[in-house]
Queue: 2 jobs
Job 1
Amino acid sequence: MPQSQERSQKRRRSASTKQSPSATETRAALQDSALKHFGARGFLAASVHDIARDAGVNVSLVSYHFGGKEGLFKACLERAGTDQLSVAMRILSKEPETIDEIRIRLEMFVDEMFLYGISNPDMFAILYRDLNSEFHLVEDIFKETFLKMFELLSKFFETARKCNLIADWAQPNLSAMQLMGSVIHTLRSDSIREKIFNQTISNPDVRSLSRNYIVKSHLLGLTTRN
């Protein structure tokens, strides 16, 4: 057998034994790539061809696994929302019995939100920039994940009020909105803070200081009785 033909057969045998990525691996690769493109360019400007290229797969697999660009966008939001809801359920589902327990659980919750924002800047950019404009695409996912997380936090404050741990004038929904608003603002302004003050919540000491300040100032207001 000519050497060229033998080499060709070896290449074919090698290609046939090489394992292709599983469906789970392909979906994960596409979502990871999509997060970067959606985060950097937004839903409308992001290209499925660029997403597939960076994921190392054929562009047709976007439609095969997700039904297209919109389905891929939804899958990214659903994964993030499910992760965050799981964290909130773990920390906030138990009814608080003391003011110290409220403080500790809120510190844990804020810490988790900070760490998620630091570790997933692309998702944070999507949530902040695209959620409003593309809400019609992900309304059902938002209600089943992010909204439920907010409702858990609001219920946590409501239980604390019923147990007379915080003032009876405290409004659970407003309390939850203010706490989450402080966290989101801290994450959003972190790059400016780093440029001006050389401080970033990526630094554990700065993150701890920011977390403690948010929770302490929030609770001091809620425990004032008049």
Job 2
Amino acid sequence: MNRLLLTAGLLSICGVASCRGDVSEEPPIHLQRNMFSQERYDPQAFSPFFEDNRSMRSPVEGTVSREHYEADDTIATGRFADNSGYVLTVPTAIAARLGGPDKMVQRGQERFNIYCTPCHDKGGNGRGTVARVPNGFAKLPSLHDARLREVPDGQLFATITNGVRMMPSYAAQVPVNDRWAIVAYVRALQMSQGANNDQGKK
């Protein structure tokens, strides 16, 4: 009984001693610090190591991302392997990757509605929300213009990839397969508009 009381008393004293209520400026003890306290730079931090004092560095020229690497240059650029011009149609490998032509066009419509409609609108007429801003962008061309109907599919792909005039590059936002899917959907839009025009003439 005495031993039990002694043990209880010691535990009580330890409990009271550990709850003194003092505030400490010392960091907590970490036996395994590992990555908790690593030598690193925060984004946009100053660095005395580099001559320009920037901690954030641009990739070395020619660096290729593993996540977005495309082995087939024709698919990656929209141009023939000998760089003689743009490929005429969406590569068949893209349709196979996306589950067939129907699913490719469906995927293209989904991506088009997300990334392209702000400027081009859902019908591809160049009257999206951004294009309607007062004193904003100049009038955008319709995707149904005869000139754009006749350009090769690879040129449309390259435009999405690299941008043109006021249109920025979408390579960072839209993966290669999805860019080709958007091209396929644009062609479907053009075909449907052409069919509507032909019916109206009759």
